[in-house]
Structure formats: C-alpha cells, structure tokens
C-alpha cells in the first residue's frame, strides 16, 4: 500500500508539472549543458550529452539546471590601450631575464570544445563570462609572464624571438586548458614598452647602431667602387698588355720574315757574286794568254770608236791651241798595228 501511494503521488506530481515544462534553447553557436538535480529518470549530476546549437529542448522545472556556452572563437585582450577587454591599462607587466621592466600586449584566442562543454560546468564555470574572467584570464596572465620573461631586452626587438615565445606560451596554456574542454588557438603579441628612461636609451642606441650600419654600408659601397675601378684598371692594363704582346708578336713575325727574305737575298747575291767572280777569274786567265792583249786592244778600240777626243798640248810656257784628231789617229794606228800583228 505504501509503494502504491508513492507511485500515485509521483504520478500526480508528474501530471501537475506537465503543464509547467519549460523550453530551453541554444543559439546558433551555442551548446547546452543540462544538470539533473534529482535522479528520477536520469542519473543525478551534469549530463554529458551534447545539446546542439540552434535547438530547443523541454525539461521539467526545479529539478533541472540549464547552462549554455558560446563555442565560437573568442579573444582575451590584455593591452595597454583601453581597446582591450577592460577600460584601463591591462597589459602584462614583468621583467626581462636581464632585469628590465617591460609591458607587453597579449591576445589569447580560444574556443570551447562542444564535446567537452559539460566538463566546464562540472569542474570550472557555469557561463562564458565566469569562464573568461575567473579561469582563462587568471591563468593567461600568469604563465605568459614567465615565458616572455625568458627573453633578454634586446630580443624583444626581434619578431622571430617574440613569435617563438608566443608559440611556447600557446603550448603551455593548451596543456593546462585541454582537460577543461578549452582549446587555445593562438597567442599573439602586439606592442611592448619599456621604462621611459630605458626606452630613450634604447632608442638612442638604435639610432647610433643605425648610423654605424649606415657608415658600414657607405664603407662597403666605397670598397665596392674601389674594387670595381681596380677591375676596370686591370682590364685596361690587360688590354694594353695584350696589344703590346700582339704588336710584339706581329713585329717578331715580320722581322723573322724580313730576315728570311734578306737571308735568301743575301744568299742569291752571294751566289751571283761567286759566279761573277768565277767569270772574272776565267776572264783574267783568258786575258793572261796571248790573245788577251789583242782582245783588250780591240775592246779599247771598240770603246773609243765614235768618240771625239781633243788633246790640248802645253808647250813653250803656254797652251797650244793647235788641235789633233786623236780619234782618227788612234783608230788608224791601232787598227793598222793590230792588222800587222795578225798577219
């Protein structure tokens, strides 16, 4: 009878609350998490079922809690400017590894894993605002300080160094948040600022470094110009040397050719001289014979024939203007003498 009365009471209660069932909806990017306060039909506690976005669900009031979480990508902006999540300065303040104060703007991009949303209600927070402010913000302001604090002051000027530490911060934060159903998509850095006096010293140093680099560049350019002119000079010298070598070779060839020509010419002259000398020798031999004298006289006569010779004898202390036809005389005497000897 007691069990029957309990069943009737529960049935009566169920019929009474049927008209009080409350609808629960999720937005386009939201997932719902249901919590059973009393385990009548389902187990008591947070339901691990995923209540999908853009849907409406009906649950009995009083014995059910309903929470929703936006699963789209969200940003936690901690910046110096009021454009961040807060209207006051909110950048990360810490010291570099070499002891200088620095403020760094950091943005944490994260989202909720829909399949793990029930864990957030069970262990972390019951809505997006509490999750962001109480959990994500607290951890995200602590760990990145330590990680970016590993850099030296000068390394903050190197984008690759900052990006490397940002990747390291993402990995560390993901390891912490993964069991909570939170996915860290990105850790980004924006501006950074040092103590004003130190900032001025750094800027002055950078200006000095830029001047040094400018002077180095000018020196390098001057050296390159010098090397270029040196190469041009070498080219001109090589050109001159090549021309001189060419002229020398040409002159040598011409001289050798001239020498060979003169050598051949000298050889011809020598041969001709030897032949002529032999002819003269033979002629001398011929002249030394009996007929040589007659031949000479004949040749003299032939040489003088037709030539007019006038002798002007000098006598009695003055020039005798009487003339003698020597040509006729020689011709007559010579021919007659020669004729007589031959007979």
Quick description:
By secondary structure, the chain is an alpha+beta fold.
Description:
Helix content is 55%, strand content 18%. The protein is of the alpha+beta class and 343 residues long. Among the domains are: 20-70; 74-194, Band 7 domain (Tetrahydropterin Synthase, Chain A, 2-Layer Sandwich), CATH 3.30.479.30; 292-342, no CATH class. Strand 2 and strand 3 (45-46) form a beta hairpin. It starts with a helix and ends with a helix.
From the 3D structure, determine the CATH topology of one domain: Tetrahydropterin Synthase, Chain A
Question: How much strand?
Answer: 15-25%
Low-confidence stretches: 15-19
Alpha-carbon Rg, integer: 66 Å
The CATH architecture of one domain can be named as 2-Layer Sandwich
Helices and strands, with pairings:
Blueprint (H helix, E strand, L loop, with lengths): L1 H17 L3 E4 L4 E7 L8 E2 L9 E4 L4 E7 L3 E5 L13 E4 L5 E12 L4 H8 L3 H21 L10 H19 L4 E13 L1 H92 L2 H15 L9 E2 L2 E2 L6 H17 L1
Antiparallel strand pairs: 1-4, 2-3, 2-5, 6-8, 7-8, 8-9, 10-11
Helix pairs in contact: 3-4, 6-7
Keywords:
343 residues, alpha+beta, Tetrahydropterin Synthase, Chain A, 4-stranded antiparallel β-sheet, 7 helices
């Amino acid at each position: 009878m007691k069990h029957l009365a309990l069943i009737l009471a529960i049935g009566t209660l169920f019929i009474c609350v049927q008209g009080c069932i409350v609808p629960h909806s999720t937005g386009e990017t939201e997932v719902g998490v249901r919590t059973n306060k009393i385990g009548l039909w389902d187990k008591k506690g947070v339901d691990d079922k995923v209540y999908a976005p853009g849907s409406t669900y009906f649950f009995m009031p009083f014995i059910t809690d309903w929470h929703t979480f936006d699963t789209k990508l969200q940003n936690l902006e901690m910046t110096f400017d009021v454009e961040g999540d807060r209207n006051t300065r909110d950048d990360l303040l810490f010291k570099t590894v070499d002891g200088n104060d620095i403020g760094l703007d950091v943005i944490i991009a994260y989202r909720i894993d829909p399949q793990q949303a029930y864990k957030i209600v069970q262990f972390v927070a019951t809505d997006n605002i509490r999750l962001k402010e109480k959990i994500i913000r607290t951890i995200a302001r602590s760990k990145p300080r330590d990680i970016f604090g590993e850099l030296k002051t000068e390394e903050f000027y190197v984008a690759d160094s900052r990006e490397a530490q940002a990747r390291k911060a993402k990995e560390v934060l993901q390891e912490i948040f993964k069991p909570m159903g939170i996915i860290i998509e990105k850790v980004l850095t924006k501006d950074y600022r040092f103590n004003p006096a130190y900032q001025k010293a750094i800027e002055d140093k950078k200006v000095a470094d830029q001047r040094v680099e400018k002077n180095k560049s000018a020196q390098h350019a001057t050296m390159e110009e010098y090397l270029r002119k040196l190469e041009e000079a070498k080219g001109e010298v090589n050109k001159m040397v090549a021309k001189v070598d060419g002229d020398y070779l040409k002159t040598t060839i011409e001289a050798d050719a001239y020498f060979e020509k003169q050598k051949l010419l000298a050889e011809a002259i020598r041969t001709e001289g030897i032949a002529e000398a032999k002819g003269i020798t033979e002629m001398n031999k011929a002249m030394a014979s009996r007929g040589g004298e007659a031949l000479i006289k004949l040749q003299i006569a032939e040489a003088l024939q037709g030539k007019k010779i006038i002798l002007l004898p000098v006598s009695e202390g003055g020039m005798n203007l009487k003339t003698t036809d020597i040509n006729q005389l020689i011709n007559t005497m010579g021919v007659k003498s020669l004729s007589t000897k031959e007979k």
